[in-house]
Amino acid sequence: MSSGSGSLMWFRKGLRIHDNPALEHASKASNFLYPVFVIDPHYMKPDPTALSPGSSKAGLNRIRFLLQSLVDLDLSLKKLGSRLLVLKGDPSEVIVRCLKEWDVKKLCFEYDTEPYYQALDVKVKGFASAAGIEVFSPVSHTLFNPAEIIQKNGGRPPLSYQSFVKLAGEPSWISTPLSMTLSSLPPVGNVANCEVSEVPTVEELGYEEAQQGEFSPFRGGESEALKRLRQSIEKKEWVANFEKPKGDPSAFLKPATTVLSPYLKFGCLSSRYFYTCLQDVQKNVKRHTLPPVSLAGQLLWREFFYTVAFGTPNFDQMRGNKICKQIPWNDDDKLLAAWREARTGYPWIDAIMTQLRKWGWMHHLARHSVACFLTRGDLFVHWEKGRDVFERLLIDSDWAINNGNWLWLSCSSFFYQYNRIYSPISFGKKYDPNGDYIRQFLPVLKDMPKEYIYEPWTAPLSIQNKAKCIIGRDYPKPVVYHDSASKECKKKMAEAYALNRKLTSSVSEEDLINLRRKLEEDQKPEVKNKRQRKLTG
DNA sequence: TCGCAGTTGGTGTT
DNA sequence: AACACCAACTGCGA
């Protein structure tokens, strides 16, 4: 192993062979290659205190998706004469140890803009440069380099989609062909005293066998990603006419979108390859939709949120976040729990939350519905609480995009029309009047007639009996009455906005406490009365 | 200061 | 399906 140059390829995201500049660089002019993935126990270890199966950071669906992606990567590496070396422990400690133990001249890994990786990379880069090891860390997770865009805009990220698109222009790499395959890889070097293993199974990580039907139907891995991409791209007319807001959030047998987001999240699919494929389709059709609603437009949304998130301190919180409206969200853990556990009493909302738990994925507009309901629409619970639930359970949860969308939906940033509230009753009904989506995910309501399935508490007792679903016993009564709750929310939003206008970005803790107290005092009795009247009447 | 645009609301009418 | 209307926000550029 001292006979030449060794390289360490550190996989984090970018779990793919195609269009992987870090892997390509690592394999070039190296006698040995160490392809490494570090399992961070914090991310992967079962947490028995967690609210659903999984670790403290990730639900079991995403852990399984990641493991499937690693198995697929390992298989691909093996076909190229290599393999994936799986190590366990704190990632920076493990990588530093490998660099000490192995004869490595180059350390290669994809650049990452998330705060978690930024902090991690500082440590690892620090050690590497002190040890005289070359570090190669290219930007290949996104179409653009967020740092470059921010620089181009005078040091601040563009805060609207249109200004981002204008500023970004064409990706710089567009005229050079992407490297889609590797012919072979250098052999794996001697691993010495570092303990390496094969990719573990979920059971080996300490999880119990999941029940049938609890599995996400989406399988991880580059092979699956490319297969799925091809299936979408084949439908040229569908791609050309794609308009995001027109999709049906209740479609579950055949989702209305590509469901490529989890593959983009882990880098099983290169966003740059996806983008080039979309361009090819566009060249070959007469007419096609455009950003922001087109499929390419969806990739640009991803870029937009990556850029804003990278350039905004405390992007993932309300406090200390310059672009976030300061709003006196309430701290009602009971309402939060009802939402999280799919027992709000609104079947449309509860079905979506069930799909989240079972599949780790739901349609974008379904996410809008439940996010709006939790925050500015009905429950007025802090968006950070909802963000945490999504972050843990979604198989595609992505730090920048998830936080960006919660800021958006809660009218805390980017979007401010807080009177536009998704109805937990009529929004779903307009796509799925029969309630098939609800019947799928909430079998307790499967025999409820369609006239009542979106508002089962209004069904006469005889109907409830016949459907074998008594509201209040077999399925909960609504936690709030939407008409009055949404009115109160609008009022609170108006007051909070007024306060933000007056104090422009300097709303103090005390201001918020006072406002919250004030709002609670004059609204509580009214809400209670209305709710009782409706629910008992 | 003003007018306008903003990925995806709800309701009611034609 | 397409449109007006509701009630009305902010940020941006002229």
TrEMBL record:
Give the record's cofactor note, including how many are bound.
Binds 1 FAD per subunit.
EC number in record: 4.1.99.13
Q: Which reaction does it catalyse?
A: (6-4) photoproduct (in DNA) = 2 pyrimidine residues (in DNA)
Q: Name one GO molecular function term.
A: DNA binding
Which cofactors, if any, are listed as required? FAD
Under the heading Pfam families, the entry gives: DNA_photolyase (PF00875), FAD_binding_7 (PF03441)
Which residues does the UniProt site feature Electron transfer via tryptophanyl radical point to? Answer: 329, 383, 406
The main enzyme category here is: lyase
Query: What residues bind FAD, as annotated?
Result: 257-261, 298-305, 396-398
What keyword terms does UniProt attach to this protein?
FAD, Flavoprotein, Lyase, Nucleotide-binding
GO terms for biological process, alphabetical: circadian regulation of gene expression; entrainment of circadian clock by photoperiod; nucleobase-containing compound metabolic process
- Provide the Gene Ontology terms for cellular component: cytoplasm; nucleus
The question of whether Cell division is a record keyword is answered with no
Q: Which residues cross the membrane?
A: none
Q: Report the sequence similarity comment from the record.
A: Belongs to the DNA photolyase class-1 family.
Fetch the PANTHER family from UniProt: CRYPTOCHROME, CRYPTOCHROME CIRCADIAN CLOCK 5 ISOFORM X1
Q: What's the protein name?
A: (6-4)DNA photolyase
Q: Which organism is it from?
A: Rosa chinensis (China rose)
Taxonomic lineage of this organism? Answer: Eukaryota, Viridiplantae, Streptophyta, Embryophyta, Tracheophyta
